[in-house]
């Protein structure tokens, strides 16, 4: 991982053109950022270096048009995704100029998607076992561990789609735009709290606890399935 660049290395990149450079060193498994401005065509008015990005405000010397470049390198550690998005949101919001974003680092989304389905299948397997016999303490502990891991996958997916959506996602409150981004039970998309909180009894016996809206809605009706016949409190909530 490089901590700095020599004058010779920068000269090899810029050739005979005059550039000014800013550098954010790599952190852990995340790469660093090297960002340069061609001073023959652009004037660098100001810049700032943050944890995950470099911001430069520039002016076109010919047209006098001014804008901001923001180059980011998202964290390889998905636990830092919220901090990354919060920082990027703040940098974008404070800009009085048009913004150009670049340099996303989104990795292993395919592996995460595969892992999500494996975890869902494991939860369903355990829940079916619980219907026919009493589970032991270690089995319940395993079930809750799988559920927690699945929650982390969903959090990663939410961060991924926010990054894919760019500024539109970052600068607005969380809303339901597409059913393939919203968890039916876990996201607050009907009212001000998740459906699993509003209809706790139904959630407990539902077999679609970790599905997205698009997994359940076929365009005409809801495909919810339950482990038990709906009666009493369950029927009233339904």
UniProtKB/TrEMBL annotation:
Name of this chain's protein: Uncharacterized protein
Species annotation: Sorghum bicolor (Sorghum)
Upper taxonomic lineage: Eukaryota, Viridiplantae, Streptophyta, Embryophyta, Tracheophyta
Gene name tied to this protein: Sb0062s002010
């Amino acid at each position: 991982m490089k901590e700095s660049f020599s004058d010779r290395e920068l000269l090899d990149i810029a050739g005979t053109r005059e550039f000014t450079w800013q550098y954010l060193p790599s952190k852990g498994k995340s790469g660093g950022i090297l960002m340069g401005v061609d001073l023959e065509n652009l004037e660098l008015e100001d810049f700032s270096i943050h944890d995950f990005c470099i911001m430069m405000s520039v002016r076109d010397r010919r047209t006098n048009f001014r804008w901001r470049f923001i180059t980011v390198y998202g964290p390889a550690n998905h636990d830092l995704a919220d901090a990354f998005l919060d920082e990027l949101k703040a940098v974008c919001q404070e800009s009085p100029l048009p913004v150009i974003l670049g340099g996303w680092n989104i990795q292993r989304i395919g592996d995460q998607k595969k892992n999500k389905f494996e975890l869902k299948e494991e939860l369903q397997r355990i829940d079916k076992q619980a219907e026919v016999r009493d589970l032991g303490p270690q089995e319940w502990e395993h079930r809750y561990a799988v559920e927690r891991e699945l929650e982390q996958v969903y959090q990663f997916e939410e961060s991924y789609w926010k990054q894919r959506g760019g500024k539109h996602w970052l600068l607005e409150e969380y809303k339901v735009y597409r059913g393939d981004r919203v968890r039916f039970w876990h996201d607050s998309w009907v009212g001000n709290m998740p459906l699993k909180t509003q209809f706790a009894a139904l959630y407990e016996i539902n077999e679609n606890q970790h599905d997205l809206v698009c997994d359940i809605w076929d365009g005409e009706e809801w495909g919810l399935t339950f482990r038990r016949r709906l009666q009493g409190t369950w029927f009233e909530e339904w």
